[in-house]
Amino acid sequence: MFAKLLKQSFIVLIGTSVFSGTVLSQDYKLEFTPENPEEVVALKWEDLMSQADLAAILDAPPVSHDGYGWDDKFSADSPVENAFQRALQSFDVNPEFVGKRVVLPGFVVPTAYNDERKVTEFFLVPFFGACIHVPPPPPNQIIHVTYEQGLQLDSMYDAYYILGELSSQVVRHDLADSAYSLNAEHVEIYTY
């Protein structure tokens, strides 16, 4: 049941913001000025989805409240329900942003540490608890980040801005799979 509630929450999360990627602007409150800021694209999480996956998520099947969840009532004959199920597990990337320098806020799920116990590899995810307390988001909503200098992660509840060049390299891990990778140039705490 919890997994089914997560899917409902994911739909709300995606549906609440429909901006497309824009050149770095006042929407992001960065505490530093990146080199060549005119090249940096400020992304929203839904920008990472393919158009087909985004359409499937936004056109989710109706929720049924007569049981443990609505996806156990899906019909294999329904194109809408099949597209939605595929979108929840999709590796399809948005080619428009692959190879671009991007900045995106999200939550850190550590996967590797250095000798100083700083996080050097992690998944960047759109909401707190993804991959840890709840099932992971779709792979095209997870970015595998490498950060050589390491991040002193004081609280898992903090969100961070991540800046770097986005690639479509798939990373498979015990916690989750990601459809994107990024070598971070800069990591800083997200300010509201």
Can you put this structure into words, describing what you see?
- Helices cover 16% and strands 30% of the residues.
- It has 192 residues and is of the alpha+beta class.
- The protein has one domain: OB fold (Dihydrolipoamide Acetyltransferase, E2P).
- It has a five-stranded mixed barrel with strand order 3-4-5-9-6.
Please provide a brief summary of the model.
The protein is of the alpha+beta class and 192 residues long. Helix content is 16%, strand content 30%. It has one domain (2-189): Beta Barrel (OB fold (Dihydrolipoamide Acetyltransferase, E2P)), CATH 2.40.50.
Q: Count every helix, treating DSSP H or I runs of 4 or more residues as helices.
A: 3
CATH evolutionary superfamily = Protein of unknown function (DUF3299)
Strand content: 25-35%
Give the count of structural domains. 1
Broad CATH class: Mainly Beta
List segments where confidence is low: pLDDT < 50 over at least 5 consecutive residues. 1-21
Shape designation:
globular
Oligomer: single chain
Instruction: Round the mean pLDDT to the nearest integer and report it.
Output: 82
- What structural class should be given to the helix and strand makeup? alpha+beta
- Cα-to-Cα separation, first versus last residue: 32 Å
**Rg computed from alpha carbons, rounded to a whole number of angstroms:** 17 Å
